[in-house]
């Protein structure tokens, strides 16, 4: 009997504890227990003070303007779209200012905005600009934006909760939040249960709101899915969308975006139900996801722009500010994260932001540790991955990326074994990214342009091998999603960093193997990028390997006579229709070079083929009547044969000083690149440098001695 009483008491206490915590506000990023410490921190720590001042300035600006809650009518980037975004941002700023300053005017502003929404929300139909009913929101043209609105707004409500009267809270909850949660979980159930970033935003909005409003049923639904069977919901999203290394299958750009709902919901779960140990889940996977997101950026702060990526997105974005602050304060205080926080130039005015700002002020930061690594893709880590090779300090780092991961669902591009190269804090061999002008209403309403499918996703738009002018998997998502490349070799030796991967399904009868290496050679200041692209087949094919480049063409081993007028498109479909053929040269000795000048530094790409070689100089812009495509140039290695090897060595050298009008080491040091042998067992290259002959060898069947250089 005593045992039974104890069990009942424990259950009652646990329930009472949850209920009591749910009635304690604020309770999310900023908690009531830390308000006094946060106020003191604002006065003591420069980054927190600066961050709070930015928030307060935004709040003061909002208070000085009329409250406007327009009937939704505009698409992305339009007036009503931007006004509703501004409203949730202003509410969160004002609510934060209320907690730090104690001035009720800020809470009153939030109350007025929320009551305004509550008086209108249930009258609004699905958004008139929605492209299809399944994706339609009520506040925004896309329901995704409604989910984002709620995540920010519920934080604001939590911060001002105690400043509102019970009648105002009842009105806001019954006429705004409860209808919103019903809309999200019932009308948008298909999205709620979707294993996708849209689903993540939806369920996080529902779960966080469930905690703040003390509606536990919504919390359980968010964590375990609409059927509460664990097949969908928050935990299923973590299980299926992230690899064991914390890589998000849609790529770095969408990893950055999806992180915010993941980490915010985790923070809420940890605050309300610490017994769930959410930050320990899947071997601290959320911590890995934040670190991996940072590792998939270059030292100029931009994310590697693979798949549907907006190229100028950096880790200064709000999602990574939240992520870095929470990773440091709530999961593991890795001091190199403080370097990222310093570069972000702000912290969230919150419990986590307080700790980050305090430790920065104490001088604990060290430079962020960018690493050479292979990041596994797929829920079980079995779907290939991303190979990243790095050399040099953060201030001037060479970085090579080999894309050998999964398709990335609908946002994925058809660029198996695509290559990116960075140096001198800039792109050398870039990726196009997405064909989209985000939230610019005059460009297709801010959505994806038609050229995203006709060009940006096509293989030819990337530094990847194209066979018979046809994109990988014929540019079809389902067969591409069904298979992934495989890692053959990875090495992180100080003088020989290598990644090699195989793709055997992109074409019916062609197996592709690409091996990229950063190789240090005595006498050269910078390592060489050695890139070998091999294709094996039983039939003859046309092989095209483009190298999209940034900078200016300053040197070639062959005469360039570009067409002055009467340009023709390179082809009729699969992205070729968008390329102008500017010049073409057949190289009798199957070798050549192209020299570039990029950001006052020289790059010479030496290349060779084992079949007759043609070099084509192309540029973007054909068949683009609305001028939607962004400028770009490439040199393309083209050949015909059964088996094909393209080998290249990119040499970094010299530079220019435009102020003093000086030039150093404008000519390359390497000469006589040759493919000595290339078959299914080996590829052997040779080249000369300072009178010495070097040999680079790939042994495809020898995993112990896969690559050698001597």
TrEMBL record:
Subcellular location(s) per record: Periplasm
Signal peptide per UniProt: 1-22
Key word DNA-binding present: no
Keyword field: Lyase, Periplasm, Signal
Residue ranges of every copy of the Heparinase II/III-like C-terminal domain listed in the record: 377-585
A Pfam match: Alginate_lyase
Domain Alginate lyase, chain residue ranges per copy: 64-296
InterPro entries: Alginate_lyase_dom, Chondroitin_lyas, Hepar_II_III_C
Protein name: Heparinase II/III family protein
Lineage: Bacteria, Pseudomonadati, Bacteroidota, Sphingobacteriia, Sphingobacteriales
